């Protein structure tokens, strides 16, 4: 089990390396046709706002507060998609979809979402702060 966790952490670290994440940001910027200032504003929003959203999402998950799971997961999906943080948006979307069914996602989905968010946030801070 520890080998699986360590392997998963290595995969996440590689996925969010500075080169990989910078490349994703450039693709995203070209795709949505934003200038550097507009893209920096979205990155700053992710860096500054998502930690609070994640804290609220985790609290909502613990309480099975489906309305707030939907609210925060949906917000995370939006900004993560713009930045081409595909794994973050996919796990957040999975939480959102389950909450719409009035069901709570498995804890491992929430953990994976948190792990990917933490790794992407760390690298974005290194690149853009």
Task: Characterize the structure shown.
- The structure is a single chain.
- With 129 residues, the chain is mainly alpha-helical.
- It has six helices and no strands.
- The N and C termini lie far apart (36 Å).
Topology diagram in text:
Elements: H1 2-15, H2 18-32, H3 36-63, H4 66-82, H5 86-100, H6 107-128
Helix pairs in contact: 3-4, 3-6, 4-5, 5-6
In brief, what are we looking at here?
The protein has 129 residues and is an all-alpha fold. The chain is 86% helix and 0% strand. The protein has helices spanning 2-15, 18-32, 36-63, 66-82, 86-100, 107-128.
Helix run count: 6
How would you classify the helix and strand content by structural class? mainly alpha
Q: Provide the low-confidence segments as ranges.
A: 1-7
Number of DSSP E strands: 0
Rough shape?
globular
The description of the largest β-sheet is: none
C-alpha Rg, in Å? 15 Å
Strand content: under 5%
For the termini, the CA-CA separation is 36 Å
Q: What is the average of the pLDDT values?
A: 89
- The helicity comes to over 70%
**Strand-and-helix sequence, N→C?**
HHHHHH
Key descriptive features of the protein:
disordered N terminus; 6 helices; globular; mainly alpha; 129 residues; 86% helix
